[in-house]
Amino acid sequence: MDEVIARIVADLEAQSPISQSFLRDLDTLLDFTLKTNDTIDIENLYNELSSRNLSLTSLTNAISTAMDSGISSSSSVLASKVYLSLLLSPNSPVFTLFTPMAFLSLLRVIRLAVKKPSSARSEGSASRSSGGKKRGRRKNGGNQARVEIRGFAENEGEERGYDVKDLFLLMEKLETVMGLVHLDRFPDCLKALVQTMSEIPMTAIDSWDSGSFRRLSEQCSRILSEALKGEHGDLGDTAAEVLKALRPLILFSKSQVRSFGLGFVVNRMVEMGENSDEIKKAVANMPKFLLQRAPEKAEPRASAVESIMEIVKALDCDHQVEFADYVVKMSRGKTQFRVLAVDIIPVLLVSLKGASEFDVVEDSWGLKLLEALIQRCSDSTAVVRARALTNLAQVVVSLSGNDGSRAMLKEVIRHGGEGIDGMSKILKLRSVDEKAAVRKAALLLISKSLSLLGDELDEELLKTVGIACSDPLVSIRKVAIYALSEAFRKYSTRLVTKEWMHSVTRLIGDNETSIQEECESLFSELVLDRVSRDCDKKGKNVSLNVEAESLYTEGVLGLLKELCDGEVLPWVKKICSSLGKKKKLQRQTAISLQNIIRASEAQWLHNSMPMGKWTAPQGAWFLLSEVSAFVPKAVDWEFLHHHWQLVDSNKPANELQSPIGSGFVDKEMVDVESHSITWMGDRVFLLQTISNVSMDLPPEPAADLAQNFLKRLEGFNMHPTEVDAHIKALRTLCRRKALNQEEADTLVMRWVDQLKHKASLVLESYMSQISNPNKESSLLTPPPTSVRQRRPRTAESKSLAQAIVAIYTIGSLVIICPSASLKDLVPAVHTIITSGSSDPNSSKLPTPAVSVKQLAPSLYVHAWLTMGKICLANGKLAKRYIPLFVQELEKSDSATVRNNIVVMMADFCVRYTAMVDCYMSKITKCLRDPCELVRRQTFILLGRLLQRDYVKWRGLLFLRFLLCLVDDSDKIRQLADFLFGNILKAKAPLLAYNSFVESVFVLNDCNAHTGRSNSNSSRNENHLFTIRGNDEQSRSQRMHIYATLLKQMAPEHLLATFAKVCAEILAAASDGMLSLEDTTGQSVIQDAFLVLSSKEIRIQASHGASSEAAEMEEEGGDGGGASTSALKGRAITQAVRKGLIQNAIPIFIELKRLLESKNSPLIGHLMDCLRILLKDYKNEIDDILVADRQLQKELIYDMQRYESMKAKSTAADAVATVRRSEAYQSPKGVAMERNPNTIRSKLPRNLQSNSKVASAVADAAAAATARSVLREVNAGASTPLGSINVPKLKSRLGVASHGGEKPAEVIESLRRRQCFDSDDEK
To answer: Which residues belong to the signal peptide in this entry (predicted)?
Structure first.
């Protein structure tokens, strides 16, 4: 070793750069010393250095220089190892050898070595041996060392990588050194050590293998644990530094790094905290610190929440409660903190012990968390609302298993808590939120809340979900269907069943194929399968000791009853037809329906009730008639035959034999008991069922039934609803009886001609009957008395009833057999519809002198209906009679006639499109019909024609449809919203943009855009489709229409619409093309100002882009989508600003000057519009309004005045609230309430920090106090001012002034006095 020591000293004396041989020699010496624990060699080195006047500091500086030089990775690591070995050597002068600079260089070497593992050699290939074991004398060791050094010198010039074992050994030595060197005197070294050990896992994760990474992480953990000892400084400061350094690791996305950070905090530091309050407090504050530094994006934020909860779970109960209170406060902070709060609250509620225990309401911190989450459901930011609703749904699912939590959760959701509304009210608002993500989350919460609310579901809430089934967005409709179906699946109450039937079944007509399929699937599961399961449970042997409603415990009877609703029935037919075509209808359903009918009949007989009053369960025959069309073999013929004989023989006493009852004079229909109507409907559906299964009937029963049906038809004594069923069944039976198709057609034609002939005879008989008596009585003087008139009334009523059934039968025959001869039928029908008419075109055919319209209005209505069916079958007649239909549509005073003609004109539009197209303006007039049914029917039919492209969205058709958005009928408004928001947006996305400006003129009844005036007739017709006037109702209706159109536009179309409104309305007004004196012109300009300042046309690019990106992120968008949205937002911001400067502002300036010159009241609307437009550009007003400095000053003043007025209004409301409560308080309490701070505390939290509101509150409180004092003075009460001795004032001339005489100078000074009060303070 003497030679090694000599070389070391010689190198130090040479003061040349340290070579690797020097480091190897020193490493050999130190290794030997540490292994043998022999201090002779190291002491010899120290003595030799001392004899050469070389200090230990020079040795330390040389090693530090080697660490910093970084000649190679191996040299730096070797130098670091030598330095640590020197510190660990026996009897080492640690305080002399340890320097902060050397220690920092050591940490730098470790960081670089971890960062560049490619330079490391495998652990199996050591760069050299770790030193031989000492055997015998030291000479052997010295010889071995020389051999090692000689081998190293041969490759000294090569770049060598460090050995991984050396790095691990280096970190082990560093851990040992931490026990010798106390870093409390070197805070910078301690901080650097903590940061280095915390950064190593993040640096090594991508380049180290899993085994080495694990070992490296464990070593870092031990070093950090060593740093958290009292000898290294204040434990609280050190723990805070460690936690701060570990924060990036805990929030890191990769699991291994995050596991290291969490493991150290949860396992090591929590354990240390049991013996140290400082560490315990630091760990308790760590979750709060992480909340402040949590990322904003969804996935990293979720990972952060998970990490935070791992730490919170490790805390004691007191610190958990403290953290929960902090989260509640954070839920009222900035947007990013509110989002994070609503994400962490559900995890707190579900994960922590005690959070979900709601036994003590006042002290339960779980309840506080739940209330905070519910409050965020009404947050001003859409992202927060959506996240809060979604997370609340998770809480409902998680806590509903515990009975105690379930009861309290149910109470909070239903009635709310302190300062918050119940969830039912909140969900109603959120289900119709303007943001799709919020609506979707609200519907999800509703579906999850069903297990809590049970069968006590709120009716308004269910209706809200039902309305959401017609949402414009497909995803919202799907969620609404799921929510409503989940309620129907669990609670088959009448309320739920009715709402499901009305909302879900209609979606079979949805444009989205997936929704149609979902509708079919749900109907099959929730309706048809229930009926089938009922059959399996009950079978044919049904207990007869219970009431009918309890025979089927699943509410099947109520379910069947809802199927017969007039609005549900057509959709059910379409669903059954679609399922049948796909062969998804099961025969078990038909069998179950038959068993239900049998059970009802058996129970009726068991109770000894007369069979004449029995009817099958409502809806059973209807559903069986639809199902039997596709599973005819499942229906028993004996069952049908029995019930046909039953309904045919046991007719109710008050059966409606015809449309005319006894004593009919002027009424179209008479009131009929529900039993009779039900019996009649059952017979119709039974006939349809027989028709469906007729192909499988035996020949003889089929022939008997056909004969029976024909006989009943020839009697013309049935209700029209039964006529169609008999005719369809008779046609089907004839096909069953015939051997081939030709024979079947011959049989059908034979009885069709027979029925037509008899029907024409009935019509001729009735027409002659009403014509002849009038001719005879017209020659009598005086006319017959009323007593004589009543004598033939019974026979006349019977003839009229037969005539009505006969003419209806003619129409039905024409539909099933269009090839039948109409030669004898058309004159008779023409005579009826033109009776009493003075039309010269009808003089070619005989017309009776009496008016059938007045004498028999029902016959008149059916005649028009039959003529429409005839025209559908004959194109030549249609060409002749369509003008007559249009004429009747315009002049008829019967809503029934107008409704039927609208239906027929829609059919004509499909069959004869070119003939009807020219009359479309006449048909659209029915959209403003006085009768709601006619308006709704017209809207639905025209909407279907528009979807099928039989009618085009052009001309005035679109503008006339706009009025339906503000119709008096709620149903029509809902249909219009769905048409414009869903169908029209997809089919014609540019229509709203192209027609917007024209709609402003048309709705205000202004013709300035056309440049011509309309004729009187055209003006009267167009006046129906205007909302003219400046009253509040008319203006709000127009604005609702404008808002609906703007919501259909894309951002680029909104910008273009903004420019078009400025150019075609405001510029036209400034150029004189739009009159400012005309009332309609003023309304157009006022509407333009309101549109330009509305929130629908404004694009919140600067602030809205980030929120939009966040919403996209919440819906599953990636970071690329968010960045794209941000770029789009910046582009829109620039476009809006450019449009304002180049297009809008010059027009506004010119128009303002014109309005000022004419002293127009529109100047106020212009300034309000400009104030709103430039509200987001306060810092850029100087650049935007560079052309008009006066306007710039006025706008700034208006903005300030508006904010001041708003603050004063808020303050006045708060003071008024306090004054109303003064009557119930003591004088002391009144004085306290008048305190401005007290009044300010009663304001909402978002206004308490507003300086303007605070100032206004103080002014209002002072004014209220002054008024109170003045009232006391006027009442004669003593005041503190009365006790003050006020000196008397003398006049300037030394004499007191008399009476009202005042010097002229004083009066003049008062006249010149300047008033500094602003206008809004007067």
So the answer is: none
pTM of the model: 0.69
Geometric angle at alpha carbon 445, from 527 and 345, rounded to 5°: 155
Phi, psi of 163 (to 5 degrees): -85, 135
Question: Two tokens at 668?
Answer: 């179209």
Question: What type of residue sits at position 520?
Answer: E
- Helix (H) / strand (E) element for 376: namely helix 365-376
Task: Find where tokens 């003045």 sit.
Answer: 1270
Mean predicted lDDT score pLDDT of the chain: 76
> 181 near 87, Cβ under 8 Å?
yes
Q: Which two tokens stand for residue 585?
A: 């209808």
| Spans of the chain, pLDDT less than 50 | 122-159, 355-362, 537-553, 652-674, 774-781, 783, 785-792, 840-845, 1012, 1101-1122, 1222-1234, 1245-1247, 1286, 1289, 1291-1301, 1310-1311, 1313-1322
CA 1296 to chain centre: 78
Closest CA to 504 of 448, 437, 568: 568
Residue 1060, helix vs strand vs coil: helix
pLDDT in tens, 409-451: 667 666 655 555 667 778 888 888 888 888 888 888 888 877 6
Q: Are 1321 and 1205 in contact (CB under 8 A)?
A: no
Closest CA to 682 of 638, 632, 618, 628: 618
Comparing CA positions, the residue from 223, 183, 208, 247 lying closest to residue 113 is 208
639, 697 Cβ separation under 8 angstroms: no
Q: Which two tokens stand for residue 250?
A: 């805990």
Q: How far apart are CA 262 and CA 221, in angstroms?
A: 11
Q: How buried is 678 (Cβ within 10 angstroms: 0-12 exposed, 13-18 middle, 19+ buried)?
A: middle
- 3-state DSSP call for residue 1158? coil
Task: Return phi, psi of residue 845, to 5°.
Answer: -110, 145
Question: How far is the C-alpha of 686 from the C-alpha of 683, rounded, in Å?
Answer: 5
Asked whether the beta carbons of 808 and 867 are under 8 A apart, the reply is no
Phi-psi region of 16 (alpha: psi -120 to 50; beta: other; left: phi over 0): beta
What distance in Å separates the CA atoms of residue 820 and residue 826, rounded to the nearest whole number? 12
d(CA 329, CA 352): 19
Burial class (CB in 10 A: 0-12, 13-18, 19+), 1190: exposed
Q: What is the DSSP string of 669-702?
A: S----HHHHHHHHHHHHHHHHHHHHGGGS-HHHH
What CA–CA distance (Å, rounded) separates 101 from 83?
12
